[in-house]
Design a protein that fits this description.
The protein is mainly α. 77% of the residues lie in helices and 0% in strands.
Length: 97
C-alpha cells in the first residue's frame, strides 16, 4: 500500500515540476517579447506623438520627457519595467526614478 502511495506522490511531484517548467518557459518568452515591445516603443515614441519638433531618443530632453510621462501614469510597476528596459538597452547611465 505504501508503494502505491509513494508512486502517486512521485507522479504528482513529477507533473507539478513539469508544469512549473513549462510555465516558466512561457513566462520567460512573454517577458522577452514585452521587453522588445517596450524597447521599440521607446525608440519610436517620437513618431507617435504630436508632429512637432520632438527631441531624438538619445537626448537629455527626451529622457526627461519620458520620465515625466511615466511618473504621471502613476503605475510604479510599469514605470520600473520601462526604465529597466531603457537602462539596459539605451541609457545605462539613466538615474533611478
Amino acid at each position: 500500500m505504501d508503494s502505491s502511495n509513494d508512486r502517486d506522490v512521485l507522479v504528482a511531484e513529477f507533473w507539478r515540476e513539469c508544469s512549473i517548467r513549462r510555465t516558466c518557459t512561457l513566462l520567460e518568452k512573454q517577458r522577452q517579447l514585452l521587453r522588445e515591445d517596450i524597447y521599440d516603443l521607446v525608440a519610436h515614441i517620437a513618431l507617435l506623438v504630436l508632429p512637432m519638433e520632438f527631441p531624438t531618443y538619445k537626448s537629455e530632453q527626451y529622457k526627461e520627457i519620458l520620465i515625466e510621462a511615466l511618473e504621471r501614469l502613476g503605475d510604479d510597476a510599469f514605470t520600473k519595467l520601462v526604465l529597466d528596459v531603457v537602462r539596459k538597452e539605451k541609457w545605462p547611465q539613466l538615474p533611478p526614478l
